Amino acid sequence: MTRSSPLFATSATRWGWLLLSACLYGLLGYTTSREQFPMLIGLYVLLMWGYSLRIRPLFSAPDAHEVNPDRFLFGSAAIFRLLLLLAMPALSDDYARFIWDGRLLLHGINPFRYLPVELMAGGVVPASYVDPALYQLLNSPNYYTVYPPINQLFFALSAWADSSLGSVIVLRVPIILADLGTLWLMAKLLKQNNRNPNLALLYGLNPLIILELTGNVHFEAVMIFFAMLAVYLWQQHKQLLSAGSLALAIATKLLPLIALPVVIAYAGWKRGLRYSLLVIGFVVVLFIPFFNVSLLMNMLESIDLYFRKFEFNASLYYLIREVGYWVEGYNVLGRVGLWLSLLTTVGLLSIAFIRTFPVPIRILWMLTLYLAMATTVHPWYITTLVAASVFVSSPAYSVRYVLLWSALAWLSYSAYRHSPIHEESTSLLLEYSIVYGLFILDTRHYLINQRADAEAPAEI
Fold first, then answer.
1. 330 pLDDT exceeds 80?
2. What is the pTM of this model?
């Protein structure tokens, strides 16, 4: 970078930020549990403050493909991820189920077929196939696994390790590689569309992305990579490969399914349906090694129970729940969960077919609606929204609400200060009043600018 670049900072300032941030990531990754909320949120605020200083110049930097990627900051993004390579996940225990499923696969057992509690009861598989210590770490022993085939592939690879830490490291390596690949693809896509490639740092340097994906080994990182690769291949006019890549994203996490209506709306019914059918066909092929009737029934049962029984850090659902308590006198999740899903589906389809808005904005709004209507919003769910915001951020549309949500989502960890877990209404009110308030302001600003551009007289 030259000194004339808006992203230029003195070497001392940059190295100071890098070293301080590295120390903070080390403290969070290796010494802080989710029960230590004051320390957890204090360190996170410092990381977010440093992140804001680094990304602030992006909003005034030239928006043109001639701008070169900032190698120091992209390198910093890689360093922060590598620093967490040897850390056991401290903020999420999902990794235990990943290892559990992987060890079953290693023994030739279909993880979709049995409940962990059934296996621990004995008589189903040899006792040596299950680990009582690992079982004690499971957060859902009474539920069938819901992790699609690509996840299961990585889980199986991790099971070759002799220890839980070794398995975590094996899980973390593809996540780090996927995240770095995502950054490369984002920069390429931005340059191809005459945008500043350094906008990829909105994702790459975001502490939520680093801590929740690399730190807590969540495979949204792999899903986002395959989704970005699908977009890149589409723009290279390689639709078959693009469909295959999107199928890999869906076979990692099911969320990218919401992109198919957007593809149909963008490409037209004939071309869009052909692409969507290719994607679905590839997904079916990826599920074949695991498929049987019990797989389908068990996954549907787990998803149904998820919507009917689980709730955490929700927003609009909690408002509905409180109304239900007031009117009916009990938690209405079991009754309204399905209706919320149907309403969300209608809303997503409606947004997908609003052709007056660019595709990135439609995707951003669809993800926002999905999270707003969800009964459970863990912090790592916001990572997909941050990824989408990279291609929306511009003077015409600020993404303040997304970046602040990635900061405020960590307030949900205040629930783990209590035993049993108890969410604090103050944290929820603070998080969502700011997020939705900024969403309204950001979207209003964008709509006003769009209307002004439409009404402006054409140049002669």
1. no
2. 0.94
